Amino acid sequence: MSIQMRTRKLTWTHIFSSSIVLLCFILAACGGDSQAPSSSSVSLTMWTWKIAHVPGLKAIAQNFEAKTGIKVNVTAYNPDDVYRTKITTAAQSGDLPDILSYWSSGQWDLASNGLLTDITDKVDSNWQSNFLAGTYTSTSVVTQTVFDSCQKDPKCTYKNIKVGHAYSVPYMAGQAMYVYGNKTLLQQAGLDANNPPKTAEDWLAMMQAVKAKTSASGLVTGAKNPGPLDRWLFRPLLMTSCGVETYDNIFNGKDSFTNPCSLRVLNWMQQVATDKLWVPDILQTDIDPADLAFSQGKAAFDVGGTYTLSFLLAQGMKSSDIISFPVPPLQGSVYNQLLVNAVALIDAGVSKDSQHPAEALQFLKFMTQPDQAALFAKTVGDLPAVKISTDPAQVGPVIPGILKGISDNSPFIQSKAQPQNDPQDVLEVGLQQFITGETTPAALAQKVDASNKAAWAAKGGA
Amino acid sequence: MAQTSLRAGQVTTPPQIQLVRKKYRRTLRDVLKANSGFLFIVPAIIIFLIFGLYTVIYSVVLSFFRWNGFGGFSILPPSCQYPACQFAGLENYQEFLYKNPTASAFFWQGLGNNLIMMVAVTVGTVVIALPLAVALNRAVRGQAFLRLVMMLPMVTAGIAIYYVWTFIYNSDGLLNAALKLAGLGVLQAQAGWLGDPSRALGALILVMIWGGVPMTVLLYLAGLQTISKDLYEAAALDGASALQKLRLIIWPLLRPVTVIVVILTINSTLQQSYEMVYLMTNGGPAGHTSVVGLQIFNYGFGDQRQLGIASAMAWLLFIGVFGLALLNLRVFRSKD
Question: With an 8 Å Cβ cutoff, is B67 touching chain A?
């Protein structure tokens, strides 16, 4: 073979092999789902971010399949930011699951973009009657308050949703503002371990006694996460101290955080810090580590929620060694006890990408029936957003106690407060600064007021 | 010229055209042969265009819009559907720079922390790494083992490092215990090193220096190999001390390496520090370790879903890093 022919052959070999390589890349990039849909059976997908809920949801899915022949695959993506990112990318590529779980009251952006199917007409009065008071109607249905607030806010991105419309149903509820006490430690400190404190001042005194007489600290919560100090401690104290009307006015910019009923709450929280009643390293302690520390006897009290008890029991604590009560009010408060309602925490809706919306809706209805919700509660130890039995045989040992503490008359159900993000951030950092000794109640109240005023001004006024 | 016998009706091509065609054919083949390599790099170019250039342009454009991330915005084809997407112009930049008092206070605090980290980590890394590299460059017994130990932080997963250091910094952790053992109990952090507002940032800076030293030692070691031994010998003959050799020979000759180290450290402290902060302190205690990267993460992937602001902040950070890198190059080059 002449040199010219050899060279020509080599050149064409180069070109040919390069083209093959390029074609492989293009085909790989354009490859789609290799699984062909079955024409004979319907299969649904459901996403959540709560790994702990997967066994409960799978148990419900099993019953659903036994009844209807429709299989439901439940997948969890964790942590929260990964789940949000997953939804964002799936929404762009049209790969959302049939049933999508989302944070209650956070689904309006999804709804306004058409990512969730409007199911207003499908959730009839019969279905609605399954839900706990203050869950479906407060957070799954667009209220006038939510609508008006969005219309006034130039930055709101869901202005096209309609009042009275629903795009999801709640399936998990709960409430924070619960305090768990270690009876053993309380007894060691010479305190009455069977009766909860009636006031926040009594509670403070108990913490001081435990600190003085045992090696444990008085209090723990997930203070590294700025939310607990604000939402689990400050807000319930503020509600009982001020009453629902003043509470709403303070957050909605019509009153001030320097109102005496608010200042005494801040004073109380500062005193917990100045008396050094928090566990060591409290600002490095997140929510689960805080519950863990409590279960290990490092603190007499743990501020948590309805979802905390199952975790404590899973760590080996005995329910007989735990006393639980809502956050007690300060002396002279408007309400002499805190009534805690169940708040919807997780909703589920049918996504726009579902190939089987009717079946997906059928599953939603099935999972929010009392018997299936009871199964969920028994399996995962969390409170469903559905009215269920209090029989431990049906719902497990944890739920009856929680249900006993839930009230339909909680002031939080009537509350129309709309805490804004910016003043919330300032408040949360400020509550941490009580622990670091960098601020005072008066200074913090003024700072939060200034931020609240600016936030409401940007939205067109309080 | 060769005579060609013609059949009746056959059309002949003039010789000049034949020559041009022949030349054209040769050139085309040559072009193909010379450029066949491009076909091999086309996949990489496609990947760069899609995942590199396109995403960069997307991010720039997004910084001028308000968008919640759920559909309604794209640049190919251009689309911004109200109300999910709204054109904001420079408002996103203004929001965190000065317009929103709360957001801007947090932003400037974060930026301040970033700048402190940048200076402290850069100086600390160079000051520790250079003498270490010089020491490791000597032929001593166990040199290979020492080098191996030195490189351990580089091969350990970041998350593991952060969690271990968090335990070390606890109030009952290794650091406080070591201080107590050494009779320096007065230096202990009673609230934990990461819970003490006056020490938390310094604690994180120490972790960054600890993590950055191995790579820097490696770079300096490579640079040290390029320095001729004659220079050391000449300096020794002139009676130079070890410190003088370091200052007058090694430091000037390793300036190009130092430029690279400074640029890399600036980039890591300004842009990559958020991972460590997120895992170790989440910006606490009370915002004392908050950095711009963490705020970008919270704006973009937190529950606020303000991707436009996140993009705007990210671009501002990039411009800052780029500017500092250019300044660094100019400063070091001016000394050459």
Answer: yes
Count the domains in chain B. 2
Angle between the B200-224 and B158-168 helix axes, to the nearest 10 degrees?
130
B154 and B188 in a single domain? The answer is yes
Residue A402 confidence (pLDDT) above 60:
yes
Question: In this predicted model, what pLDDT tens digit does every residue of B171-194 receive, in sequence order?
Answer: 999 999 999 999 998 999 988 999
pLDDT recorded at residue B84: 86
Q: Please tell me the pTM assigned to this model.
A: 0.83
- Assess B252–A contact: CB distance below 8 Å, yes or no: no
- Exposed, middle or buried, A159 (CB in 10 Å: 0-12/13-18/19+)? middle
Is residue B9 assigned to a domain?
A: no
Across the interface, do A155 and B281 touch by the CB < 8 Å criterion?
no
Q: Can you tell me the ipTM of this complex?
A: 0.81
* Number of inter-chain CB pairs under 8 A, A vs B: 147
What is the least distance, in Å, from the CA of A426 to any CA of chain B? 7
B17 part of a folded domain = no
The parent domain of residue B35 ranges over: 24-87
Kindly determine whether residue A435 and residue B32, on different chains, have CB atoms separated by under 8 Å: no
Looking at the DSSP bridge assignments, the partners of residue A173 are A344
> Which bin fits A51, alpha (ψ -120 to 50), beta or left (φ > 0)?
alpha
CA–CA distance, B184 with B177 (Å, rounded to integer): 10
- Residue of chain B whose Cα is closest to the Cα of A279: B191
Answer whether B33 sits within 8 Å of A423, measured CB to CB.
no
Same domain, yes or no: B277 and B155? yes
**Domain contains B13:** no
Q: Could A157 and B67 be called an inter-chain contact, meaning their C-beta atoms sit closer than 8 Å?
A: yes
Domains of chain A as residue ranges with CATH: 43-174+342-406 (3.40.190.10), 178-339+420-458 (3.40.190.10)
- Name the CA dihedral angle for A82, A88, A89, A90, rounded to a multiple of 10 degrees: 100
Write out pLDDT tens, residues B259-280: 999 999 998 999 888 999 999 9
Same domain, B327 and B190: yes
Say whether residue B301 is in contact with chain A using an 8 A CB cutoff. yes
The alpha carbon of residue B157 is apart from the nearest alpha carbon of chain A, in Å, by 19
